[in-house]
Each structure stands twice: as structure tokens, then as C-alpha cells.
Amino acid sequence: MISLNHRTKIVATIGPASNSPEIIKQMIEAGMSVARLNFSHGTYEDHAKTVHLLRSVAEDLDTPITLLQDLQGPKIRVGYLPNNAIALEKGATIDLVPLFAFNSQPDTVPIDYPYLAEEAEIGAKILLDDGLLELTIVSIEGSIVKCQVVEGGQLKSRKGVNLPNLTLKLPSLTEKDEQDLEFGISQGIDIVALSFVRRAEDLKTLKQLLTAKGSDLPVIAKIEKPQAIANLKEILDQCDGLMVARGDLGVEMRPERVPMLQKEIIRQCNLRNIPVITATQMLESMINNPYPTRAEASDVANAIIDGTDAVMLSGESAVGNYPIKAVQMLARIATDVEPEINFVNNPPAGNDETHALSEALNAIDSILNLRCIVTFTSSGYTALLASGERPQSPVVAFTPNLEVYHRLNLIWGVKPILLDREVITFEELVTQAETLLLQRNLVVTGDHILIMGGIPTQIAGGTNFLKIHTIK
Description:
It comes from Stanieria cyanosphaera (strain ATCC 29371 / PCC 7437). The protein starts with 8 loop residues before the first strand and ends with a strand. The relative contact order is 0.11. Helix 16 links the parallel strand 19 (about 395-400) and strand 20 (about 415-420). It has helices spanning about 20-30, 45-60, 115-120, 175-185, 200-210, 225-230, 230-240, 245-250, 260-270, 295-305, 315-320, 325-335, 355-360, 360-370, 380-390, 400-405, 425-440, and strands at about 10-15, 30-40, 65-70, 75, 85-90, 95-100, 110, 125-130, 135-140, 145-150, 155, 160, 190-195, 220-225, 240-245, 275-280, 310-315, 370-375, 395-400, 415-420, 450-455, 465-470. The strands form 4 sheets. An 8-stranded parallel barrel has the order 1-2-3-13-14-15-16-17, surrounded by 7 helices. The chain has a 7-stranded mixed β-sheet with strand order 4-12-8-9-10-6-7, with helices on one face. A 5-stranded mixed β-sheet has the order 20-19-18-21-22, sandwiched between helices. It is of the alpha/beta class. Helix content is about 35%, strand content about 25%. The chain folds into 3 domains: about 10-75 and about 170-340, TIM Barrel; about 75-160, PK beta-barrel domain-like (M1 Pyruvate Kinase, Domain 3), CATH 2.40.33.10; about 355-470, Pyruvate Kinase, Chain: A, domain 1 (3-Layer(aba) Sandwich).
């Protein structure tokens, strides 16, 4: 049985280092709640195998796993280089060319954006590989953009390209994204993340596409562009969740701005009760080392103190040497930090029965020292509201809806449990809660639990009662 020791959820990117039954099993047991499938890499055959593997292992462990499809978005990347890498020397001149013009000439780098020469400006800065390498545009000759190397180093194939001084005419949703989305829907993914969101219209475009495909998938907006910061309020009004993608955000903007931006973004999400993921370089050194730096441990702890719903591993779990240890470390940090936090109790977002009842959770929890808070939910909304109160007790969400069961595993402090049938009466709700909690060793005789639900049960959003119950 998966423990309820920590409330902050752990998102782990699945890649070559973690794509095996045994490692995935150990990562879930260590605390992985969400598996991120990065559609910037891999074939459909690879992703289909990964989805099947994740679902199979989670079913064997009788625990949910949320599948997060991360669309590539309008990401500009270096093409494939001879021998997979090229050395860029400081002061040297190199040519950036579109893929169709690349012929493996020395000091030439292919770029998968065909309009770079049209939109480039002399003197503009170009950053490669998350800003580790820096170029300055010195001239433009036809389709060739000539650059001088300001900060050199080893450039590998498929590394990212950022142009912070240029406003590019990139679509929010590429043709590849649309094809990937259709594939993801066919595979039963639970949540989709849109990369490089710049404005609310980007999310509206994706949601319209989902509606046209008959899907109601929740949409996460990845915040990694200056335009997204400028339009944050409008983006929050449209998204179902948000990711603070600190890698590209720190490249596109000054790195020193990222910490306070992270805090403000998380605060705004908490105010609106929108789940938020903090991502990128959380335990970067654990790609090669079995333990993180003290600074990385503090970084993770601060994100948790800020109120993030989830923390995310990227290369640490996708290509690193210690994917299981990285998940374990996040879980250990969360377990240590969470009991010391006095979370802000934000005012309710609505004046209705469900919001009023959720506001009462913390008062009851603080007096009775509850073992857990139980919600019965068909849409997931009641569990989301309970989580938003940041109670000291974990939230156990019973639902008969398989999609909701999977999606709720991203939400802070929520442990979803799938019901095999719809529970109809009040008495059945109480009996089911006690029976299933005892079966899963989540309670013992004498424990106090708080049950939150709605009668009649079939009405979505109809939460209308709280019941304090003692396990007999």
C-alpha cells in the first residue's frame, strides 16, 4: 500500500533510464504520482509501450498513476550534428542554417526553424542548450545567419535554441503537437501540457481542438516565456493547471528573476485553487550523483513551502544514473518539510455550499486531529477544494470515475481510491468509507475521519454535508 507520508506530489519524466517495469515499480513505491511523457523525444511506438507499462505496473500496485503528455510546442532546436556534437570556441564564427540547407560543412549548425534568417536582427543574442552557450548575430546572408561565439562549449544535437530579443511568429500549437495530441488521446493520457504558452488564446486554441476531438482533458500551461508573465492573469483564467518551467524561463529572462516569479506564480495558483508544478533542475546533480547538493535540497524545500502542488524531475529520472534515488529524495524532503509549514488559508472562491463546507475542514481537523478527510466525488471538484484548504490531514478521494481517479493523483494531499460502483445512500457512503480505509490499512479502530460528500450522489458539484465519523 502506498503511504500517505507526504502531500506534495512528485512528477517524474520517463526516459531511457527509467523505462523498465522494475524501475517504474520502485519509483511509484518511492512516491512518484505523475509520469511525464516528453513528446519532444521518442516515437509513437516508444510512447505506447511506456503508457502500457505504466498502467500495468500501477494496476499491479493498486494505485493510480497520472499520465502527463508534455507537448513539444514551438520549441526551436539544433538539428542532428555530425558525430552528435560540435565544439564552439569563444570568438569563432559559425553559420546557423535551416535543416534543408545543412550539408555537414565545418562550423555550420542546423536549426529546425526555417524562418530564422527572415526574423533575425544583427546584434541579437542567441542562446543554446538552456543558455549555457551564447551567440551574437553578426550578419545575415540569404538563409544563413552568421554568428560570433560569445560563450563557447560543446554543443550536442537536439539542444534547445532561445532567441530572447526576437519576437518570432511561431504558432502556439504546431502540426506535430496536433498529431501528438491525437495519439495521446488514443492512448488514454490524463492531462496535457502546452509548452511556450504566451497568451490566453494559446490555451483557447488547444481547448477548442480538444472539444472538436470529443475530449475534456485538463490543460496545463507551461510558463517559460516573458509574454506569459505579462499575461499571467488571463492565462490563469483559461488553464486547469500550471507549470513553472524554470529552465526556459531562466534563459528567456534573467535567472535572478526566477525565484520571485516562482513564488508569485505559485501564490496566484493557490489563490485560484489551480494545481501548480515546479519544474526543471530541482535535483540536477543527481543525474550523475547519488545525492543532491544542499542548495538543491533547499530549492525543493522552498518550492514546497511556497505551496506548490508538485515538484518535477526531468533529466534526473529520464536519463540520470539514479532515477529511484531522485524520487526518494524528493519524498524525503517533502516528508520533512511539510509538517513545519503553516499554510495560508485563502478565502473561498465561491459563495456556495461546497466552498462553505470546505472552509470548515481546517477548524474540525485542528480540534479532532483527524486521521484523514474523505471526499466522495464524481468530477474531482470536491477533492480539489479540500486540497486547496491545505489541511494537516491527508485527503482520501473516493470516485467511481476512472478518469477522475487518475487525474486526482496530481493534486496536493489527495490519495484517490477507485470505487467499483456508484454509492447511492448516505449510509452506504459511511459504510464504504470505513470498509475501504480499513482494508487498505489507512485507519485503525478509534480513528476520527471527516466525510465530505453530497446526497443525492449522482449530482456533480452537489456537495452538501460533512460527517465526523469514528472508525469502529
